[in-house]
Each structure stands twice: as C-alpha cells, then as structure tokens.
Write a structure and sequence with these properties.
The chain is an alpha+beta fold. The chain has helices at residues 2-8, 22-46, 51-57, 66-101, 127-145, 195-199, 225-231, 307-317, 329-372, 374-382, 387-419, 432-458, 462-467, and strands spanning 112-116, 150-156, 166-172, 185-191, 203-206, 220-224, 241-245, 259-265, 280-284, 294-299, 327-328.
Length: 468
C-alpha cells in the first residue's frame, strides 16, 4: 500500500483515500489461488511423454507431445496479444495527455494564484450581511495587492478553470427561440473590475466593469464569446439586454431584471481541458450578493511564492473561515488531467510488464525447444546445414508465434480502443502512429527474445549431439 500510495501521489492529491479493502483483498487472493492451480495443473495434464523414446534415449531428448507444445505456443501467442492491447491503450492515453497539454486554456498567463474564500452564511442572506462581507473582500484585495510581486488582484465568485457557481436559464430581449429550441442555460459568475486582468481573460469587445457598476446603478453584464455566438449569431451583442429566468430564481437572491451587455470576453476551459467552453454571464461583484467569492492574484514571476503571505492575510482578516484549495492556475490545470495521467501510467506499467513476460515466454519456449531438439539439430548440421540455416529455423519458429500474437493483438486493440473512446481526446481510437509504433516495438523485442535461443542452437556441436 505504501508503494502504491507513493506512486499515485505523483498524479493526485487523493492518496489518503487509498487503503486495503477486505473484500478486494479476499477476491484477489481467491483469483490468485485459482489461477495458480489451473495454470499449474493444466500443463501437467497436457504433457505426455513418449515412453519408448524415453527408454531408448535414457530420458534424454524427451519432450512434450504435440498437444503440450501447442498449449505452450498458444500461451505465447496470448501473451504477445495481451501486450499489444495494453501497450496500444497506453499509447493512446499517452497521446491524449500530449494533446491536453497543448490545449489553450483561454488565459493569457498562468502565473496566477487563486484563493477561494466563502463568507456567506446560508441562514443570513440579507443586504446588511452582504455589505459586511464585501467590505472584508475589499480589505483582502487591498492588502494582498500591496505584497511584493503582485501585479493585480481580482474578486470573483468562480476561480478560473473551475466549474463552481450558479447556472440559470437565460433569455435575450427581442430574440425569440425557434420552434423546439431549448432555452439557453448559462453560468452566472460575479467579477470585480480587476478580475479579467488578474485572471488573464482577454477582453474581445466593449469594456470591463468599472467602479461605477455598483448596487443601485444600471445592471450590466459581460458575456463570453460562446454565449455571444449562441444568442447573437452574426449580430453585435454590445448594448443588447439579457435576463435570467426559470423557477429556480425564486429560491435565490438573483434578480430577473434585464441586464445590458457591455463587454465580451474570451472563452475559458472551465468545464475541463477536453470539454466545450460553457455559456457564461459575468455580473459586477458589487451588484450581486456575494454568494461565492475568492481572490485571483496575478504575479510577476512566481505565483506559488505568494501562497504563504496571501493566505496569512486572509486568515488574519477572516480567522474563522476555512481556507482550502489554494492553487495556482498551473496546479488547477494539472489537477484536471491527473486522473488521465494516472490511467496512462497504470496501463503503461501493465503493458511493460506484459511485454517482459511475453519476451521471457518466447525465449523460454524456444530455449526448451532447442534443448529438446538437440539431436535433431546435430543431425541436420552433420548433413550439411550451416549455422545460419539453423538460426533461421529457430527464428522462423518464434517469428510465427510472434506474428500470430501481433495480428490477434492489433485486432483486440482496435476493439479495446472503442471501449476507451470516452477517455481519449484529440486522438482517434484507431490512430495509425500508435498502433504501428506498438507493433514495431513488440516485434523488435520479440525478435531479440527469439535470437538468443537461435544463437544457442547454432553453437551446438554436431559431434557431441551425435554421441548423445
């Protein structure tokens, strides 16, 4: 368990959840015992010794009968096929990781630190409490901005690249829905005037929020590009009005008033690096209740160096509030792909282990075949067969097993790739580069495994073999 925890700890912070489950342990022991009995007994039953040959040779040169050798060959073919399936899956998952690493997050910089701080008391959602909370947020913002290395500090209900907050049905003024069209559903997030600069979210059109966008002034919003493309295709969204709707509004402090669009910002990968950007509406932090809140801190060089001083300020201002999930944008991005990275690492480990077992199996079966056919090889060499011909004979025997295993493995990998299609991103389940690379690698390893017993066969002394 300690080794597994150490290994998994490189990919996820949830190592504390790893433990020994009695049911899983019992099942594993049972399967191991049954496997040992089956694969220990079956070869013994399949092996039949030719008694006449054994008596004539004094027990030398005996071998299993044809059925026993067929079983050995079938096991080698199965090992190679399983190796191909596992390594093909590992290759597809690894290429998925490479594709995710190249995904544009929608942020101009990743030197950003996020500190979620929720001050809302669910039992007291009233204007007086909200005003007090916003004063505390403003104080955090001012003191953290004064830290060395801080470029900008923004306030928002949702941290960049995370999917938390509220979502509502939304409608656009003067834009009726088509027959059968579903009501658009968008995330409502709040942001201070500095939020977009601090997070590195680009402003595409219009303006950012200003200090005059406060409670009592005209309600305004900023939408992301996907929202603009969805509700206002081929139209200018600036100046148009939108409103939240739906029965869920009556259970929240969110107003159904019309809001004027004053800006459009770029899309961000908040639903995950492999997900479609979400429809997002940003409202001024000062115009909505601070249901959720947090700090977005942009640093000049090293955002992680601000974790300790920034957290210390927050704890001093709100000592009773738990501070969790303090992460940089790079850590958030890494956390979003850590499950895929763990899957790729585990499948790769199993694949490498299967390749080793298959290589040892091929070498072992061929070595046993050479040992059992020492007399035959000696006779061939005494009749004129050179060392090269003997090597080719053994290589051909192993090559046939290797080719069968590769063919079955590729077929199985194509089927298995369809099963893991949902885990792939930017890579086709039948990716030619992955399958060719796996086939070449296993073919090379298999031929090396075949070459060792072939060299041994070529070194047999015909005279010694004949005397035996």
């Amino acid at each position: 368990v300690d080794m597994l925890t150490t290994f998994v700890g490189r990919f996820t912070a949830r190592t504390g959840e790893i433990g020994i489950d009695p049911g899983v342990l019992g099942f594993t022991l049972l399967v191991s015992a049954i496997t040992g009995l089956v694969f220990g007994t079956f070869p013994a039953l399949a092996a039949r010794v030719d008694l006449v040959s054994a008596l004539k040779t004094g027990g030398k040169g005996t071998s299993t009968a044809g059925s026993g050798r067929r079983v050995q060959s079938a096991l080698i073919v199965a090992q190679v096929a399983v190796s191909v399936v596992l390594l093909a899956g590992a290759g597809l998952l690894t290429r998925t990781m490479m594709q995710l690493a190249d995904v544009n997050t929608g942020l101009r910089t990743e030197e950003v630190l996020t500190i979620p701080v929720s001050l809302l008391d669910p039992t007291r959602v009233d204007p007086a409490t909200d005003a007090t909370n916003k004063e505390l947020y403003d104080r955090m913002q001012r003191e953290i901005r004064a830290l060395p290395g801080v470029i900008e500090v923004g306030l928002g209900s949702t941290m960049p690249l995370t999917r938390t907050g509220l979502a509502f049905d939304v409608k656009a003024e003067g834009t009726p829905l088509a027959v059968g069209e579903a009501i658009p559903h968008a995330d409502l997030r709040t942001a201070s005037p500095e939020y977009f600069r601090a997070a590195g979210i680009p402003l595409l059109k219009g303006r950012e929020f200003s200090t005059t966008d406060r409670a009592g002034s005209g309600r305004v919003v900023i939408i992301n590009r996907r929202f603009a493309d969805k509700l206002f295709p081929n139209e200018e969204p600036l100046g148009k009005r939108v409103a939240f709707t739906g029965e869920i509004l009556q259970f929240t402090p969110i107003s159904s008033e019309w809001r004027t669009i004053v800006g459009v910002v770029g899309n961000t990968q908040d639903g995950g690096l492999d997900a479609e950007p979400r429809l997002v509406v940003f409202a001024p932090f000062a115009q909505e209740f601070a249901i959720l809140g947090g700090l977005v801190i942009r640093a000049d060089t090293n955002a992680s160096a601000l974790v300790a001083p920034a957290t210390r300020i927050v704890r001093h201002i709100v000592p009773g509030v738990p501070i969790e999930n303090v992460m940089t944008i790079a850590q958030i991005k890494d956390q979003s792909v850590s499950p895929r990275r763990l899957n790729a690492a585990l499948v790769s480990s199993f694949g490498i282990l299967a390749v080793i077992i298959a290589a040892v199996g091929i070498a072992g079966v061929l070595a046993f075949s050479v040992s059992a056919r020492t007399n035959e090889i000696g006779i061939r060499m005494s009749l004129g067969a050179d060392r090269g011909r003997v090597q080719r004979m053994i290589l051909k025997e192993g090559g046939v097993l290797l080719a069968l295993g590769l063919a079955l493995g590729i077929a199985g990998a194509l089927l298995a790739a369809r099963v893991i299609r949902g885990l792939l991103f930017g890579v086709a389940p039948h990716d030619p580069a992955t399958f060719i690379g796996v086939a070449v690698m296993i073919g090379a390893i298999g031929m090396v495994a075949c070459w060792i017993p072939a060299l041994r066969a070529a070194r047999i002394d015909p005279a010694i073999a004949m005397r035996a």
